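Hey L., structure's done. Input below.
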Amino acid sequence: MKSLLKELVETPGVSGQEHQIRDKIREEVEDHADSVEEDRMGNLVARKGDGDETLMIAAHMDQIGLAVKDVDENGFIRFSKIGGITLQSLMNQRVTIHTETGRVTGVLGMKPPHLMDKENRDKLPEKEQLFIDIGAEDDEEVDELGVNVGDTITFERDAKDLQNDYITGLALDNRVGVAVAIKVLEEYEADTELAVVFSTQEEVGLKGAKTAAFNVSPDAALAVDVSIAGDVPGIEPTETKLGTGEGVDLQMVQSSGRGLITPETVRNWLVETAEEGDHEYIRTVMEGGATDAAKIELVKEGIPTGSIGVPMRHMHSSTEVVKMSDVKATAEFVTDAAESFGEKF
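Output:
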């Protein structure tokens, strides 16, 4: 799975502009699905099996990023954030601007510390003080390079191996979930229908999963995403006990109840699957954040929905980190859950 995950990570797909990652996913799933279709929202839906009941598995394929907002007369580019990017993650980054004609490399610039007073030297700058430098002489050259307002921007980072089965890269949120969903689709052999949705625009409001759920109209659904791992300095056990290498995250409550509250039928199904299959797992309650599950459960008369998480360090940065054994374990667990779905619902 590692080679697949690296390929997914290095294929861009900022929210609302997921065409490249969608095409890559289509290549990976079309030989393992009975049908593959793109809906009007841009979700990719791969179906397998033809039973009377349908299970939907959702994994969002979009990533956080930036968009070109303005170009000044000297050729420097101002930008807007797309999704939950922090100022800390913007500092000193090399970026790629994705234009209609190709890619343009740039760097995020700011006033050098030598010209700052002591009071401001160690403070984070305001976003308005940052700009992208592509080496252009003026705005006309930027235009000639095909850079337009609205073009998406990603950090320039390759996926790399770390020690002890860890991997780091950009957009592991949520290419990890995508890789898991692809593996589940490959392995699935039950009689009930499986509809795997690679959803769009999760990072900007869980948008794609909502419209996809209306179209698929499943009997139950699972969202597969990443979860915050607490096994790093600065995170207290009272904030999360979830760590890498410790099992699959079964989310009971999201965002203090404003997100998903997993219904009892789904809780029982997932916990029984974990225990009967000897899968390591941990039940979690999230104080903040939500996954596609929070929108899926509200479609039509309501859809019984659960949310599965792969522990991840350094979320919403350009150096996210996961342990490959967690990715594989999650794929095995979700496959078992999918194949037992017909017995539980």
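The domain at 65-155 is CATH 2.40.30.40 (Elongation Factor Tu (Ef-tu); domain 3). The CA atoms of residues 164 and 323 lie 8 Å apart.

-- N.
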